[in-house]
Amino acid sequence: MNAALKALALVAIVVLSMYIAVPGARAQSLSLAGSWSLVSLTVTRSGTEEELLGAHPEGLLVFGNDGRYALVGVRANLPKFGSGNRLQGTVDENTRIVQGNVAHFGTYTVDTAAHVIVFHIQRSTFPNWDADVQRRPFTIDGDRLTYVTPGSFGYGAAKVVWQRMK
């Protein structure tokens, strides 16, 4: 093999390896696996963003490498049960607690081309979502994940922001 052919072969290998590496790097940058902390859960009403779980909500979203996930979001100022027994909550306590949290778990897939998380919800604290499949468009900006939920809570679509935990 002459020197020109060797050089051409080397250039071809380098160029091909660059194209092969790019999709892998892109897929890695879109990886959701790991733990995320809730930053905000907002809905826009009359042009104003409203925090559905109040100021400074707390929550955890875990995407497993095995395709399973678990999500919980909680209002920071949930009331304690006056009786000390969760089975004997007052109507007001129960109402505030139900409206102050959301949780669901199941399996997930990611459509990286369409930037969509597909949640296959097994169970939820909002039973209307049990056994539901929901597609949520998402963006990742650094360590921030933002997606939009469907409008089935009764208040319209909500924007959810998570911060990757380290």
Automatic annotation (TrEMBL):
User: Matching Pfam families, A to Z?
Assistant: Lipocalin_5
Q: Where is the Lipocalin-like domain?
A: 34-148
Q: Which InterPro entries does the record match to this protein?
A: Lipocalin-like (IPR024311)
Protein name according to UniProt:
Lipocalin-like domain-containing protein
Q: Which organism is it from?
A: Caballeronia telluris
